[in-house]
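Predict the holo structure. Ligand: thiamine diphosphate.
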Amino acid sequence: MTPVRILPTIKSPENLKKLSLKELEELAREIRITILETVSRTGGHLASNLGVVELTLALHYVFDSPRDKIIWDVGHQCYTHKLLTGRQLEFTRLRQAGGLLGYPSREESEHDVYNTGHASTALSAALGLAVARERKKENFNVVAVVGDGSLTGGVAYEALNQIGHLRQRLIIVLNYNEMSISPSVGALSHYLSYLVSGQPFLRMKEQAKSILRSIPKVGWPLIKAARALEELVKKTFFPGIFFEELGIRYVGPIHGHSLPSLIEAFEAAKNYEGPILIHCVTQKGRGFKPAQLNPEKFHSAPPFSIKTGKPLKEDNQPTYSQVFGDTVMELAQKDEKIIAITAAMTDGTGLHRFASDFPDRFFDVGIAEQHAVNFAAGLAIAGLKPVVAIYSTFLQRAYDQIFHDICLMNLPVVFALDRAGIVAEDGPTHQGINDIVYLRHLPNIILMAPKDENELRHMIYSAFQYQKPVAIRFPKGRGIGVAIDKEFKFIAIGQAELLKDGQDLIIAYGNMLPTALEVSQRLEKEGLSLAVVNARFARPLDENLIVERARKARVIITMEEGVLAGGFGSAVRELLDQKEIYHPIFKRFGLPTDIYPMGRPEEIRQWLELDPHSMIEKIKAIYQRAGIK
Ligand SMILES: Cc1ncc(C[n+]2csc(CCOP(=O)(O)OP(=O)(O)O)c2C)c(N)n1
């Protein structure tokens, strides 16, 4: 490979302005090499970032960041932006503890205007900035970059609605690559690809010409004027299309890897007095064949070999997501009422096999978590058995739908909360640590978490029979390697499990169980006897078991991988208060309310002192302070 020589000279976007087109093109190549080499080591959002190299270069060439404000929707495609805005050294530590976040971060740079990580927020925020600019009589450009996948999110439409209404000066760059993580879904996606196919453009141009020709004398001069305008924005106006009807000028489709076309379009947009959308057609994974051929796999890739495109570590142990997907498949084979729903995460939630085997019982609704929940409500009312698989962090979006549309009506919908707990390299926006808290107080809902992948299967099987809203949380990554039972076992609502006997008590929830057992076993060797209860349910708690044990215990410990305020440990504390059991020393292990950075889960657990060693030391100190032997 030819060496990278221009990129190191780019300390800020200012340095781009002096480059020739040829140099910019060379820079694009160097950026691709840098992204590829880095992400192959660190893992990250490869395909999305390779797709926006030219688009980002053109934005920083035309606009004047940080005076002009660029907002990245989701933000997973911001690597070129980071490389151009003074963070090349830090880029080597992308997504590593203490290194560079894989998303925009106001704490990192003044060029990162708005922190993102969840989809479809950029348009609203951009409008807010544009309105503030007008009120304060300032003069800068606001640019929102949004993908076609993120345009499937309802909040993006709420923003478009108001953008068209207020008609503030605002530039929307639609990064169209036909992909969300999987291929983009829905009617708007079809519509955008129809625009890209060029048919409406050609037809409308012809229609416009013939209308104008039919008006004597005025016609041809108007056509000439229209041509000038066309030249300005690369022959791309579409009167009457969806965005135009909303009051947003539409320009496109633009070749999203052609720097001259992009620069010309952005220059034209800069001078437009109102909201304007530039439809750029890009290719995910551009420049790296394995990612071009399989953009889904390289959307967010673990470290891989550049030579083969294969992950550096192959592991056959199934992930929790796979166990979930396979279990739902197995159950669906016997029960045709089961319907699976995902919000743009078919692969991530382990539902790809279900999708191909039961195409008419599988729905990818797009990045539309709120809609997914209400859609499931309708299915449940009609007697079907929906399971909604959404990552813990993204289900936060649908809090009101879970309350209003599911829990109040006590509808039998199963929620599979994937990536619950500490979620490593994606950082603060992706930690799945709030679900216990945001669900526990809602009426009717049952909350479960398995101690291992085998128990997950039994929980899914049981949840479909409860005839109530149920949320099952489980962590990201591989299971712990236990044997999988062939037969499903029914777990009664609220039934905990005593895993180890002892005088005092550890009550653990979900993935904290292996740690709880290790802690108890190691403490046993030091003469401290603690029983271990696998709570299985955060709601309802197993009152009989917990109360009976708590009455005898001198020390009660709870463990959860979630936020403590209002979490699982709080539920146990409330139960003890209710039963007037005040005497045991009570200690909750979990996450204090905070913003949690990126890092490997083991690292984060160590910082939080949630690793076995730290917990053992703390528990020993409790016994010592209380003088208990
Ligand atoms: C609310 C929410 N749901 C799901 C996701 C997971 N997610 C991250 S990127 C992405 C696809 C985004 O597609 P698009 O905006 O078209 O960007 P592309 O990667 O195709 O460039 C999804 C579904 C998310 N970030 N936020």
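Residues 214-229, 231-237 have pLDDT under 50 and may be disordered. Residues 320-473 form a domain with the Rossmann fold fold (CATH 3.40.50.970).
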